[in-house]
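Human: Here is a favour to ask of a fellow structure person. Comparing notes only helps if you start from a blank page. Give me a protein, with the fold worked out from its sequence. Please set it down just below, with no commentary around it:

Assistant:
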Amino acid sequence: MDFKLEFPVAEQSKQICAIWEAGWHEAHDDILPASLRELRTTSSFSDRTIENLANTRIARDGTEVLGFSMVKKNELYQLYVSGHARGSGVAQSLIADAEDRIRLAGYRMAWLACAIGNDRAGQAIR
């Protein structure tokens, strides 16, 4: 799969939001309390996407966003890849890019928090 990494433009926020919402629910619905799932509405993902757009990098194939990463200081804050792009190298490229951005910001160590039971996320960073 051919793709390139770049900073997103505002018009891509809906695609980013859709990947984040679908991926979050897929990874967390069975392992987190219902009260937290109820807070994760489309609006909540949309608001957080827009708030973090300047800290986001996307993998893009043509006009389609395949995945994204968000960095906050030395944290890989969010990492999601669309279902059909998984296994294509998008996640690994986004992780390497996030590590580079963290390093260029002057940090010597990066970190990522995952919910216990989110096995796919744990495998992606090994």
The CA atoms of residues 5 and 93 lie 8 Å apart. The chain has a mean pLDDT of 92. The longest helix spans residues 13-28. Helices lie at 13-28, 34-39, 42-51, 90-104, 119-124.
